Amino acid sequence: MAEPKPWRKIKFKTMAITSDLVKHLRQLTGASIALCKKALEETAGDMDRAMALLKKSSEALASKKEGRSTGSGLIESYIHGVGKVGVLLELRCETDFVARNAEFKTLAHDIALHIAGVKPGYIDQNHVPEEAKEEAKRLFLEEAGSLGKSKEMTERIVAGKMEAHFREVSLLSQQYVKDPSISVEELIKRHIAHFGEKIEVTRFVRYEV
Description:
There is one protein chain. Helices cover about 50% and strands about 15% of the residues. The protein is of the alpha+beta class. The chain has 3 domains: about 15-65, Orthogonal Bundle (Helicase, Ruva Protein, domain 3); about 70-120 and about 170-205, 2-Layer Sandwich (Tetrahydropterin Synthase, Chain A), CATH 3.30.479.20; about 130-165. The strands form 2 sheets. It has a 3-stranded antiparallel β-sheet. Strands 3-4 form a two-stranded antiparallel sheet. A hairpin with a 2-residue loop joins strand 3 (about 175) and strand 4 (about 180-185). Helix 2 crosses helix 3 (about 45-65).
């Protein structure tokens, strides 16, 4: 009887990191070429894992930049269609170098376009006035009160409805109109990772005739 062959470790081939693969990841995420290449190398060319890695790194970088001041930026104006809807947006960054960059200007334009189409009322939930919260709470209490639930359950229902409502009408938590798989906040975080600077929406106004 022949002796069994010694066990050999099998080497699995990893996907080659081509320029087309890097470009495709950049189109999907908006991250820089260098970051996309690094993410693909660290995940052996796995596109899904590379996207998850870039998302995690962009969130971490955005968190680190949170305390920085934004001394530059631009005002973006957008008129939709035949002039019935208009938006003024203030998008800020740290330096004039980034503010003059074409990709930063495109970001401002895309956010203004989103505001025109989706009609957010606030930047985020921290910008919701107390009177708006109180009015929403009053309306949701009236709705929940008719369900005949206990006081504790009613309060939970109202809290959940308020959270969902203000997430829906807050710009940063809305699904990005040009790519519903991400939020506007995620879109901005990708550009923070790309530029290495803090970027923030400081105010906007939407007009409609």
